[in-house]
Amino acid sequence: MNLRFVETFVWVARLGSFRAAADRLNATQAAVSNRIASLEAEMGCELFERLPGGVRLSTIGQRALQPAEELLKAATSFKVAIGSPQQLRATVTIGTIDSIVHAWLPNFIERVKERFPSLGLDLNVDTSLAIGREVSERRLDLALLMGPVLSPGLKNIDLGSMECVWVAAPSFGLGDSRLNLEDLRAYPVLTFSRNSVPHIWLLRQFEELGVSPPVISNSNSLSAMSRLACDGVGVALLPLPLVAPMIASGVLQLLSITPQFPALKLHAVYADDPENLIPSMLSVIAREASLHTMGVSA
């Protein structure tokens, strides 16, 4: 029995279509269709019912899914057991967010390459909402994001927290002032993407104070927001690891604002599937990198 065919069967079953499975496996739709046809011919039964919008498991396919997942787990365990980490060859798709890119992603990659030098990493940077959706749909092996992602079949690993701070260019003259959140209504505000967790929290803070929020400009590129803040376009709420070098160099000033903005909770998220050993191991490395960079003892 060809394990690649079994893996294809599992992904078609999870995603509900040949096209989605082909995207996930970096294969053509025709290749996926041929693998399933070959597996069905070998087993002497139909594993899927073909529908206009995709496929669904047949009665036999439903019975076969769990043994197929266990077979893939056993195959992965076998590879790990007989080979050293240096010989582990695979490509892992990882989704992450701008905040982590500018904080500890380089440290994470260095640690992964040190332990698994033959492991390929396919990185995608987007918002937590988008990354969470992709890992829920099993289009990513591992997500590093603001979480948790509360979806069936996912495992969330706590990666600690990340402090966010208010900053502004020295031209604003706010660095030596003690400010309340209401004081920011006089300035344009630069921050995280619209409808992100930090954006919603910020609006909630203004709502709890009973005041209307200032004009807020959003972007999923925190690099763009920090550049605009340096150029004096507005006051910015950004992750501390991103702006710490700019504060140290004097390009930005740290502002003292009450109430303090809550820290961002970070998580590693992956499908809690039997064969998902590599994302599980990488989530441990991600926690080490995060806690090390944030100066927290594991």
Any overview of this molecule?
The chain starts with a helix and ends in a 5-residue tail after the last helix. The protein has helices spanning 3-15, 18-25, 29-43, 59-82, 98-101, 105-115, 128-136, 197-209, 222-230, 240-249, 277-293, and strands at 48-51, 54-57, 90-96, 119-125, 142-146, 154-162, 164-168, 178-180, 189-191, 216-218, 235-239, 253-254, 256-258, 264-271. Helix 6 (105-115) crosses helix 11. With 298 residues, the chain is α/β, with parallel strands linked by helices. Helices cover 45% and strands 23% of the residues. It folds into 3 domains: 3-82, Orthogonal Bundle (Arc Repressor Mutant, subunit A); 85-162 and 265-293, D-Maltodextrin-Binding Protein, domain 2 (3-Layer(aba) Sandwich), CATH 3.40.190.10; 164-262, Periplasmic binding protein-like II (D-Maltodextrin-Binding Protein, domain 2, 3-Layer(aba) Sandwich), CATH 3.40.190. The strands form 4 sheets. Strands 4-3-5-14-6 form a 5-stranded mixed beta sheet, with helices on both faces. It has a 5-stranded mixed beta sheet with strand order 10-9-11-7-12, with helices on one face. It is elongated and about 75 Å long. Helix 8 links the parallel strand 9 (189-191) and strand 10 (216-218). The protein contains 11 helices and 14 strands.
